[in-house]
Amino acid sequence: MLSFHKAVASDFEQVNQLIVDQLHSNVGLVENIGHYLVEAGGKRLRPLLVLLCANALGYKKEARLELAAIIEFIHTATLLHDDVVDVSALRRGRPTANAQWGNAPSVLVGDFLYSRAFQMMVRIGDMDIMGILADTTNTISEGEVQQLVNAKNPDISEADYYTVIHKKTAALFEAACETAAVLAGANASMRTALRAYGYHLGLAFQLVDDALDYQGDAATLGKNVGDDLAEGKPTLPLLRAMQVGTPDQADVVANALRAGDATQLNAIVAIVETTGGATYTLDAARTQAQQAIAQLAELPDSDYKRALVTLANFSVDRDH
């Protein structure tokens, strides 16, 4: 268990049980895929944010556990759909659900998880929370479509890239933090600050993920290295390499992106290293992490606040 999980370890046990309970379905395949995903583990960062923020604000009621499970269901649904769209075969060191059961069951179980999340939201009965999460799921979908549009296009700007990673990744981090603040009855200033914490933290995480795709190894990452290149994703390490590299280096990267040519991975990794593309990306992630921590200034000191700070630092000091 990572140190920032320890502050809410008992909450997490209850959330995990709630997730299992809420996966119940009369259709066996739904439960099989659902349990397969739950057993895969992962950092569970989004529900963790709900628990840390709610507890940091002194909110201890049962609804925080339900909200954490809701956020995890939304996230898991997006992963199921992502893996189909990206034709991914490996996640968290195991075959993806679409590799195991096929695309159609994966998409449909993703839909089940989305709808189960909204059923649970109705039980919480807070229109503010429902509004935030409805907007967030819409934003995530837009981000996925925009990423698809940007695929194999080496000419997008850094601003375009940041727009996509905000919508795809940071939006749910934002929502996890803000909905916890709403649940706890926080004032407008605290709600805005925690939302901003989630925004910067989410960007930091995605920036590091994108850097690791050209620095890590499959065993550590739990996914195939070079997947981003095979999908023609113009991530920041590549954008930076094309921006500051020689014309020949920029052409190699651009052509590999246009073709989605993962056979060029070794050459691309060498160019990213030579041009400092990964370092540039990690530096940007560190800036985002520090901006996240700055948003916690108004939060009362507690183990939960310290865990939020530790989590922000972990976001840029990790290898997976």
Automatic annotation (TrEMBL):
Swiss-Prot/TrEMBL keywords: Magnesium, Metal-binding, Transferase
GO molecular function (one): all-trans-octaprenyl-diphosphate synthase activity
Keyword Magnesium listed: yes
Cited PROSITE patterns: POLYPRENYL_SYNTHASE_1
UniProt cofactor(s): Mg(2+)
Domain of life, source organism: Bacteria
GO biological process: isoprenoid biosynthetic process
EC number per UniProt: 2.5.1.90
Keyword flag Metal-binding: yes
Catalyzed reaction equations: 5 isopentenyl diphosphate + (2E,6E)-farnesyl diphosphate = all-trans-octaprenyl diphosphate + 5 diphosphate
InterPro entries in the cross-refs: Isoprenoid_synthase_dom_sf, Polyprenyl_synt, Polyprenyl_synt_CS
PANTHER family the UniProt entry points to: ALL TRANS-POLYPRENYL-DIPHOSPHATE SYNTHASE PDSS1, GERANYLGERANYL PYROPHOSPHATE SYNTHASE
Cited function: Supplies octaprenyl diphosphate, the precursor for the side chain of the isoprenoid quinones ubiquinone and menaquinone.
Family the UniProt entry places it in: Belongs to the FPP/GGPP synthase family.
Name of the protein this chain belongs to: Octaprenyl diphosphate synthase
Originating species: Simiduia aestuariiviva
Lineage of the species this protein comes from: Bacteria, Pseudomonadati, Pseudomonadota, Gammaproteobacteria, Cellvibrionales
